[in-house]
Amino acid sequence: MAGGPPPKVARTSGTGRVGEKREDGRLSAGPEWGPLARLAGIWEGEKGEDVAYANENGKIGLTPYREHVDFKPFGPVENGSQVLYGLDYRMAAWRGDEDNPFHTEVGYWMWDARDSEVVRCFLIPRGSAVVAGATVAPDATSFNLSARVGSQTYGILANNWLDKNAQSISFECTIDTSVADEFTYSETTVIKHARVAEEVIHTDGNTLRKIADA
Predict the structure, then answer these.
(1) 105 and 94 Cβ atoms separated by less than 8 Å
(2) In-domain check, residue 150
(3) Is residue 2 part of a domain?
(4) What is the per-residue pLDDT for 22?
(5) Is the pLDDT at 66 greater than 60, yes or no?
(6) Residue 1 domain-assigned?
(7) How far apart are CA 19 and CA 28, in angstroms?
(8) 137-71-178 Cα angle (round to 5)
(9) Are 143 and 39 in contact (CB under 8 A)?
């Protein structure tokens, strides 16, 4: 892989101020995680609303969903002089009482204190990847992240079929952690769909409660 040696990843000993390790060996998020510290944990919510184009009936409809999200702290990660602290990210969403999730994501949320930058990078098992980011204050409890197709930094990639038939043009998400042990988000993806003349506005949103520490 080009670009020099791989980044160093180190976990702290738990005796200092950088994310203490608990008795079970897991790392807790300290101030080095900036605005991401309040997201660390295990979350669940049943108020999800997905508004999307349905290929089955050719219409835009609303799908309620329930959701489970894990944010596990790690770090620091060193990219040369850049130092990042992150959250390992796993989510799944289900319609009603279905056993199999209709949507899943895996990835990382990263915080760069020097540049006050939050980056969310994640994969969707339909053949797409998103890197969204923004400049965010270290004590922020609400912030917005965005990505756009064609960008070299905050961008969107997809497989050939999606690129031709359902191309995601832009992605924006708003995060709110202002209420203790509560996490609210809203997301908007603009899609150029082969079966629809106008751009499709796909939205998702939910409010989750923390059920356990990370």
Answers:
(1) no
(2) yes
(3) no
(4) 53
(5) yes
(6) no
(7) 5
(8) 45
(9) no
Does 3 have pLDDT greater than 90? no
SS (H, E, C) the chain: CCCCCCCEECCCCCCCCCCCECCCCCECCCHHHHHHHHHCEEEEEEEEEEEEEECCCCEEEEEEEEEEEEEEEEEEEEECCEEEEEEEEEEEEECCCCCCCCEEEEEEEEEECCCCEEEEEEEECCCEEEEEEEECCCCCCEEEEEEECCCCCCCEEECHHHHHHEEEEEEEEEEECCCCCEEEEEEEEEEEECCCCCCEEEEEEEEEEEEECC
Whole-angstrom distance, CA of residue 31 vs CA of residue 129:
29
Closest alpha carbon to 189 in 158, 143, 152: 158
Assigned domain for 22 exists:
yes
Q: What CATH number is attached to the domain comprising 14?
A: 2.40.128.20
Q: In angstroms, what is the C-alpha Rg of the chain?
A: 18
Its pTM stands at: 0.87
Per the structure, how many domains does the chain have? Answer: 1
Q: For position 79, what pLDDT does the model report?
A: 96
Closest by alpha carbon to 102, among 135, 76, 131, 64? 64
Range of the domain at 34: 8-212
| Dihedral over Cα of 95, 104, 174, 32: its sign | positive
